[in-house]
Amino acid sequence: MKHLYVILLCLSLQGLQATHLVGGEITYECLGNNEYLVTLTIFRDCGPTSQAPFDNPGNLTIYRGNGQFYASRSAPLLSTVQLPNTTNNPCLQAPPNVCTEKGIYQFTITLPPDPDGYLIVHQRCCRNNSINNIPNPGSWGNTYAIEIPANPPCNSSPSFTYDPPVVLCSMDSLYLDQSVADLDGDSIYYELCSPLHGGGNQVNTGNGPNSPLPIPASAPPYTDVPFSPLYNVNNPLPANPGLAIDPFTGIMTGTPNALGQFVFAICATEYRNGVPLTTVRRDFQFNVVNCNSNVIAVVMPQDIATRCIGRTLQFFENSLNASFFEWDFGDPASGPNNTSTLASPTHTFSDTGLFEVRLIANPGWPCADTTTRLFYVQDPIDATFDVMTNNCFDDQQFQFVFRNPGDIPADALIEWDFSPGATSRFSNDLSPPNITFQGYGPYTITVIITYKSCVSTFARNIELFDRPTISTVFSDRRGCAPFEFQVPDIDLGAVGNFEIEWDFGDGNQSTQLQPIHVYDQPGVYLINMKLYTTSGCIDTIYNSFRITVYRTPISNFVVDPDEVSYYEPMVKVTNIGATPEEQIYTEMGDGAGYAGNTFTHNYSDTGRFTVMHIITTPDGCADTSYAEVYVFPETLVFVPQVFTPNEDGVNDIFQWSVTGVREFEMIIFSRWGDQVFRTEDPNEYWNGGYNNTGNPMQEGVYTWVIYARGINNKVINRHGTVLLSK
User: Fold this and answer.
1) How confident is the model at residue 92 (pLDDT cuts 50, 70, 90)?
2) Is residue 489 packed enough to be buried (19+ CB in 10 Å), middle (13-18) or exposed (0-12)?
3) What is the pLDDT of residues 230-274, one digit of tens each?
4) Nearest CA to 325 among 368, 282, 366?
5) In 215-274, which ranges are E strands?
6) CATH code at 673?
7) pTM above 0.85, yes or no
8) How many CA atoms lie within 13 A of 530 on its CB side?
9) How many CA within 13 A on the CB side of residue 273?
10) How many domains are there within the chain?
């Protein structure tokens, strides 16, 4: 096993736990109509020891190009994100205690055309006291500024494509992409430049120019942050080869060879037609640290559950400090699929067996490490089996047959367990002999197949049943059409699932357990029943019986007339349609009855009578029809000639007698023709007063008129006189 050890100078972690800003930059995008979207990016130390939270909002100042103040703006803090603590070299791992966080501020502003353009500025103090390449680092602040040129109009500044790295590894060659993107497609020139100073550490001066947060920011020009002896703009940190940036690609190279914190700046200037437009300046602090070089290739061991799942396996690594991988599955017969560069690859082996799998962590790098591990590949053993039997206790001979016996190796160990109820409980045969059981089920059958380190287990439940039986007795039936046949309750024995089929002998069928069927036509019908089980003990039960349906007669007769007078109460009854062999009986509704085709009957009372006519065949089938006879009373009217309304209790009222009427009217007139009484109630009377009110009228003769319609529609019109005497 190979390891790469990089021996570096020690760096105090306290020096990395700064609590200040570590860099920033300003960019802008022209939105049209003199409107600009301005973005301020701030980098700060983070972690539990940080004491410099992001300002919210951020304050920016806009100056005209001639240095005249134009406006101040507050930009909200839109987002914060911690930069990844990664290195440029997969062989090296950065210390976990270095932490840098990025904050983004944005605002829009409308800037009318100005011949001198504009300058956007943000100033904030202070820099880390632990910086190594500037004198008195805690006394120098930060100025982030960018110009908006007057021409061309609506220009957008370049913007850095990638965030700066949080750490640089000492003694590791750099290849950092610090390029920018330009929306206008202008040419870009890159160079190292000086950070700018702004703000101060005088905390009791409000927001003046020497305060930590000048509002407004100081007007230009701005002071370069000076470098300590041995350092300058083009040599901001110890490196061999020295730190450099390609002026056309923005690729930064060099090999840092000393630990510490170093401030520097990158300037990217855009040119159009050879004329410089604006420069975006990234001010940042590099942390040069010792990086660990401890790459160890680790292959996760094979899970025992995967040894017998087939020829396709997935592999997992748990390597330390590795970024790239190269797998060799030890299966050259699989051709180009024998290798993979994935972290967790899947491989399908060309055969079963034992394979040596190799993993190289960080292949091709000086820190590469190699390890191997054995993997066992075996096709799964299918232990599923089917049961060959009908599950009938009186005819049990169970056979247990593997579904895929050809997949079971000849030297595999087969262990059957047929449960304690079996006459022979255990077997090691591929096809065990017929097995029987001593009682009714259920039983659990288990088989275990062992081949090398592969074990497959399968279990299945079986159950023994009685043969299906029906204790219900089906006998022949008889009835008159329409005859409704209902299957009686069926008492089934202990059976599994079953189906039942009925054939009613008239072309109709049913699959209900207890169907109801109606026979409309007379005849003899053979009913067949078939019941068969679909689980448990598979068997079939048949049953047959007959249904005899007799003809039902039709009762029909005539009563003439159906309305008669009490004084002539005779009716004649005539049977219609009965055959000679059918019995006829007629009940007249008044207690009298007759057996014959034709007869007469006299009613002895008035009223309505229901006549019932019954026809019965020799087979006992009967039909009944009905008729109604009305015997009405005769219409009679009796009117007295004299009454004496003197309240002596004798003949005090004029009372007439009427029978057998359905309509009635009585009107009484005085001798002068005036109407003195009228009623439509045949049971009312006249007491001698005007309309039966007040005292009796004068003595004398009064004329009456009666109109009546009898129940037989006979009309009676009568008139006469009555003497009112006191």
Assistant:
1) low
2) exposed
3) 999 999 999 999 999 999 999 999 999 999 999 999 999 999 999
4) 368
5) 244-245, 251-254, 260-272
6) 2.60.40.1220
7) no
8) 8
9) 2
10) 6
